[in-house]
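Pilot study result, target chain (165 residues):
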Amino acid sequence: MTDLNVSASRSSPHQDCAIHPSFKWKPVYNLECVYCQSTLCVRGMKAILLADTRVELYSTDLPPQGATVLVEEDYETRHCECRIKDIACALCGNIVGYHVMLPCHPCLKSCNNGHFWMFHSTCVQPHERLDHSTNSILLWGGLPASSQDDKMHSSSNSQWMECCR
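Predicted structure:
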């Protein structure tokens, strides 16, 4: 563990889904597009690909509205039988990851974080999210439910709106 304080509630406010206990101690990341620096996600988790543990990526339970768009047709992955669809940054249009449209049985049975939105580690710039009430790194165990996470409802599209004006 680093010198930084970390914050996780023993009685987790994260009510969207039952998160495996091993994931509660993982930091929450804000993810920016490496191509245009727009915010793609405020609820990122560093992860590994279930079907190939050499592949590092970031995942989220729910991306902010308007930050990404689904593109092209869905397809089967190289590593398993999951059906996925690429996602692109809504601001610059570059492919930044994919959405698992239909997970395969082996992936569902393995220990997973329940996230179906994946970001390629080479396409995002991660920044640890702070818990402003404690000035420490926010952990998934202390993350509010997405419906109560005020970062989800902030002006994540402010750069987009500014560009369009």
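One observation from the pilot: The longest helix spans residues 158-164. A full batch analysis is planned for the follow-on phase.
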